[in-house]
From TrEMBL:
It is a single-pass membrane protein. This is Prostaglandin E synthase 2. Belongs to the GST superfamily. One of its GO terms (cellular component) is mitochondrion.
């Protein structure tokens, strides 16, 4: 998730929290841990426009840097609202065959990879939902929420509205609900506590415990099922801690690529229909300039290769190798599992970028990606535009 920041002459912070599962050199480990310390990436921009754009452009990354176990200081509950906050939906996804009985509103940035993950999951389940495009500069659409990152999912429940946050936790909580509809979302979220802690730099951070775990109301006796769930969790974590970090350095690799990327964001996100013209220009040109500079630091931070394309290709190869070992179309078999949906969602966030075309041309990701796209499209509802400029 990325969190835009607009105050003048302040540092651009791309925070991150290490997930519950720490990966070994092959990215995998079975030990469940609390989040560890993080480091912040800062950049003082040369102009007001670049500074604001930098905050907007930080959409793709959070920083991982762990040294020792952080000290937990506070546990927080998910927000429960008695009434729906005021909002203006920009899109509605309507599926007449939706039997979930859920009324959902997704607050998002269109091309945020974590928002793309949630949309991919909702579409793969054939769920109807509303979409609110959040104004990346002013963030008026989520001013009602103390939690200022996206995605935020608001679910209508008995007596009010339950707020869900963090893409991985949203997916896990909803999947838990679908597997046992006797449980209410208000109860399920208690399995994913939001914890605040202080990192080594003295900065207050938050993370969600168990975010990649789908909960069961009883033990899973089948050994094969347990191993499949473990593998699924590990690849979901890999997508957030490895794959996503290859994106920004690639899509903002050069000034030209950075500008082309933001113009695609503007087009696919419907910014011109949703936001004032001055704001669109600020996000496109200011964001492109800032992210081109930030991408260089992200490359170093995440130890990517000199040619960052190779780091992206290697990540795709690792995923496809795992799928091929299954001998099926997807990691989940004949149908995608949550890992398939997660990886697809992350990659779909750069589908219109040159980096994605290069990825298709230089790896075997294309066939799997197209199969995923077709699979999800076959279940997705109709998209209705209800654009209204703020």
């Amino acid at each position: 998730m990325w969190r835009p920041s607009i105050p003048l002459l302040r540092k651009v912070v791309l925070p991150s929290i290490k997930d519950n599962v720490k990966f070994s050199k092959t990215f995998f480990s079975t030990r469940n841990r609390l989040p560890k310390s993080t480091a912040k990436l800062t950049l003082v921009s040369a102009s007001v426009g670049v500074l604001i754009g930098a905050g907007y452009g930080g959409y793709t990354h959070y920083v991982v840097n762990s040294k020792k176990r952080p000290k937990l200081t506070l546990n927080e509950e998910y927000a429960f609202l008695n009434e729906a906050p005021p909002y203006q939906a920009h899109y509605k996804v309507i599926n007449e065959s939706d039997s979930s009985n859920l009324q959902l509103v997704l607050f998002q940035y269109r091309t945020c990879p974590f928002c793309c993950k949630v949309r991919s999951y909702l579409d793969s389940k054939g769920i109807s939902y509303e979409i609110v495009e959040v104004d990346a500069v002013l963030r008026q659409a989520i001013k009602w929420s103390a939690y200022k990152k996206v995605p935020i999912l608001l679910a209508k429940v008995d007596g009010g509205y339950q707020q869900l946050m963090d893409s991985s936790a949203i997916i896990s909580a909803l999947e838990t609900y679908f597997r046992d509809k006797n449980s209410q979302l208000t109860e399920i979220v208690k399995f994913y506590p939001l914890s605040r802690y202080t990192n080594d730099d003295g900065k207050s951070m938050t993370d969600i415990t168990n975010k990649n775990f789908v909960m069961h109301n009883s033990s899973v006796p089948d050994q094969k099922e347990r191993m499949e769930e473990k593998e699924e969790r590990e690849w979901r974590q890999w997508a957030d801690s490895v794959l996503v970090h290859t994106l920004s350095p690639n899509v903002y690799r050069t000034p030209g690529e950075a500008l082309a990327t933001f113009k695609w964001f503007e087009e696919v996100g419907g910014w011109k229909q949703s936001f004032p013209g001055w704001e669109c220009a600020l996000m496109v040109y200011g964001g492109a300039a800032a992210m081109w500079m930030i991408a260089k630091r992200l490359k170093k931070r995440h130890n990517l290769q000199d040619d960052v394309r190779h780091s992206l290709y290697n990540a795709a190869d690792a995923w496809i190798d795992a799928v091929k070992k299954k001998g099926s179309k997807f990691l989940g078999g004949d149908q995608p599992n949550l890992a398939d949906v997660t990886v697809y969602g992350v990659l779909s966030s750069i589908e219109g970028c040159q980096a994605f075309q290069d990825l298709r041309n230089n790896t075997d990701i294309g066939k799997w990606y197209d199969e995923m796209k077709n699979n999800i499209a076959s279940k997705k509802g109709r998209v209705l535009s209800v654009h209204a400029k703020n």
